[in-house]
Amino acid sequence: MDKDVIRTDDAPAPFQGAPYNQGIRIGDLVFVAGQVGLRPGDAAIEGDIEQQTEQAMRNISSILEAAGSSLDRLVKTTVFLQDLDDFARMNAVYARFVGERPPARSTFAVAALPAGALVEIEAVAHL
User: Fold this and answer.
1) 88-119, pLDDT tens digit by residue?
2) Cβ within 8 Å of residue 123, ≥6 positions away
3) What is the CATH number of the domain that holds 13?
Protein backbone atom coordinates (compact mmCIF):
# COMPACT_ATOMS: atom_id res chain seq x y z
CA MET A 1 0.00 0.00 0.00
CA ASP A 2 1.32 3.44 -0.89
CA LYS A 3 1.34 6.26 1.60
CA ASP A 4 0.36 9.69 0.38
CA VAL A 5 1.77 12.84 1.97
CA ILE A 6 -0.87 15.40 2.90
CA ARG A 7 0.16 19.05 2.70
CA THR A 8 -1.92 22.21 2.98
CA ASP A 9 -1.08 25.88 3.43
CA ASP A 10 -4.18 26.13 5.65
CA ALA A 11 -2.25 24.55 8.55
CA PRO A 12 1.26 25.26 9.86
CA ALA A 13 4.19 23.62 8.10
CA PRO A 14 6.29 21.13 10.11
CA PHE A 15 7.76 22.84 13.16
CA GLN A 16 11.14 24.43 12.42
CA GLY A 17 11.56 22.25 9.33
CA ALA A 18 11.44 19.02 11.35
CA PRO A 19 11.34 15.78 9.32
CA TYR A 20 7.62 14.97 9.43
CA ASN A 21 4.51 15.68 7.37
CA GLN A 22 1.27 17.34 8.38
CA GLY A 23 -0.54 14.16 7.49
CA ILE A 24 -0.23 10.77 5.84
CA ARG A 25 -3.03 8.97 4.00
CA ILE A 26 -2.67 5.21 3.73
CA GLY A 27 -5.49 2.93 2.71
CA ASP A 28 -8.69 4.38 4.11
CA LEU A 29 -7.04 6.14 7.06
CA VAL A 30 -5.50 9.58 7.56
CA PHE A 31 -2.90 10.13 10.28
CA VAL A 32 -2.50 13.77 11.32
CA ALA A 33 0.69 14.88 13.06
CA GLY A 34 0.34 16.63 16.40
CA GLN A 35 -1.05 20.12 15.94
CA VAL A 36 -0.49 23.01 18.32
CA GLY A 37 -2.37 26.30 18.43
CA LEU A 38 -0.17 27.96 15.81
CA ARG A 39 -1.90 29.81 13.00
CA PRO A 40 -0.54 29.15 9.50
CA GLY A 41 2.19 31.67 8.72
CA ASP A 42 2.62 32.86 12.32
CA ALA A 43 5.97 32.55 14.06
CA ALA A 44 4.67 32.28 17.63
CA ILE A 45 1.82 30.62 19.49
CA GLU A 46 -0.52 33.03 21.25
CA GLY A 47 -3.58 32.77 23.44
CA ASP A 48 -4.93 30.79 26.34
CA ILE A 49 -5.84 27.10 26.40
CA GLU A 50 -9.21 27.70 24.74
CA GLN A 51 -7.73 29.72 21.88
CA GLN A 52 -4.89 27.25 21.36
CA THR A 53 -7.26 24.26 21.40
CA GLU A 54 -9.53 25.97 18.88
CA GLN A 55 -6.61 26.66 16.52
CA ALA A 56 -5.20 23.14 16.90
CA MET A 57 -8.60 21.71 15.94
CA ARG A 58 -8.86 24.09 12.98
CA ASN A 59 -5.42 22.92 11.84
CA ILE A 60 -6.51 19.28 12.12
CA SER A 61 -9.69 20.06 10.19
CA SER A 62 -7.71 21.71 7.37
CA ILE A 63 -5.34 18.76 7.08
CA LEU A 64 -8.21 16.27 7.09
CA GLU A 65 -10.03 18.24 4.39
CA ALA A 66 -6.86 18.27 2.26
CA ALA A 67 -6.80 14.47 2.62
CA GLY A 68 -10.46 14.06 1.64
CA SER A 69 -11.77 13.50 5.18
CA SER A 70 -13.24 15.67 7.94
CA LEU A 71 -13.61 16.02 11.69
CA ASP A 72 -16.79 13.93 11.67
CA ARG A 73 -14.66 11.01 10.41
CA LEU A 74 -12.23 11.11 13.37
CA VAL A 75 -11.68 7.71 14.96
CA LYS A 76 -8.89 8.48 17.48
CA THR A 77 -7.22 11.53 18.95
CA THR A 78 -4.46 12.02 21.48
CA VAL A 79 -4.30 15.23 23.48
CA PHE A 80 -1.13 16.40 25.20
CA LEU A 81 -1.55 19.10 27.85
CA GLN A 82 1.14 21.21 29.44
CA ASP A 83 -1.03 21.43 32.57
CA LEU A 84 -3.73 18.90 33.43
CA ASP A 85 -5.59 21.70 35.26
CA ASP A 86 -6.48 22.96 31.74
CA PHE A 87 -8.39 19.73 30.98
CA ALA A 88 -11.94 21.05 31.49
CA ARG A 89 -11.34 24.22 29.47
CA MET A 90 -9.65 22.31 26.63
CA ASN A 91 -12.40 19.69 26.70
CA ALA A 92 -15.17 22.29 26.32
CA VAL A 93 -13.60 23.61 23.10
CA TYR A 94 -12.68 20.15 21.82
CA ALA A 95 -16.28 18.96 22.31
CA ARG A 96 -17.58 21.66 19.93
CA PHE A 97 -15.41 20.27 17.14
CA VAL A 98 -16.06 16.53 17.58
CA GLY A 99 -19.84 16.63 17.92
CA GLU A 100 -22.15 14.02 19.35
CA ARG A 101 -20.14 11.01 18.11
CA PRO A 102 -16.63 11.87 19.34
CA PRO A 103 -13.64 9.65 18.56
CA ALA A 104 -11.77 7.50 21.03
CA ARG A 105 -9.29 9.72 22.88
CA SER A 106 -6.33 9.63 25.23
CA THR A 107 -5.16 12.67 27.17
CA PHE A 108 -1.76 13.09 28.79
CA ALA A 109 -0.02 15.74 30.87
CA VAL A 110 3.50 16.31 29.55
CA ALA A 111 6.56 18.16 30.82
CA ALA A 112 6.79 20.49 27.82
CA LEU A 113 5.43 21.09 24.31
CA PRO A 114 7.05 22.79 21.30
CA ALA A 115 7.29 26.59 21.33
CA GLY A 116 5.64 26.85 24.74
CA ALA A 117 2.33 25.44 23.50
CA LEU A 118 -0.30 24.61 26.11
CA VAL A 119 -1.89 21.82 24.04
CA GLU A 120 -1.02 19.52 21.14
CA ILE A 121 -3.51 17.20 19.46
CA GLU A 122 -2.84 14.37 17.01
CA ALA A 123 -5.55 12.52 15.14
CA VAL A 124 -6.52 9.52 13.04
CA ALA A 125 -9.53 9.69 10.73
CA HIS A 126 -11.30 7.47 8.23
CA LEU A 127 -11.75 8.60 4.64
Assistant:
1) 999 999 999 999 999 999 999 999 998 999 99
2) 31, 32, 35, 60, 64, 74, 76, 77, 78, 103
3) 3.30.1330.40
